[in-house]
Amino acid sequence: MRALVCLRTVPDPEIPVLDVISMRIVREIDENPDGVRVTITPTYSGCPAMKEIESSIRSTLNQAGFAKV
User: Fold this and answer.
1) Are 6 and 64 in contact (CB under 8 A)?
2) How far apart are CA 60 and CA 42, in angstroms?
3) Is 59 in a helix, a strand, or coil?
4) DSSP H or E stretch at residue 41
5) What distance in Å separates the CA atoms of residue 32 and residue 52, rounded to the nearest whole number?
6) Which of 67, 43, 52, 57 has its CA nearest to residue 9?
7) Architecture, CATH, for domain 2-63
8) One digit per residue, pLDDT tens: the chain, 69 residues?
9) Cα–Cα distance for residue pair 21/55, rounded to 1 Å
10) What's the whole-model pTM score?
11) Distance of alpha carbon 34 from alpha carbon 46, whole angstroms
């Protein structure tokens, strides 16, 4: 799964030595011919970094060639 490999490079903004996969922020990845759908959940309720994480995920996947995220 190409998207999974890409997402292992996206750091958690609050604990940058860990990525969003290791932190279990990414719950599901669905790659299909039209693009990729990533389901994310916060590590705790009200996590203020979720918008930043979402943006980093979109940017990383777009740079990797996924047109629709």
Assistant:
1) yes
2) 19
3) helix
4) none
5) 25
6) 57
7) 2-Layer Sandwich (3.30)
8) 899 999 999 999 989 999 999 999 999 999 998 899 999 999 888 889 999 999 999 999 999 999 999
9) 15
10) 0.91
11) 31
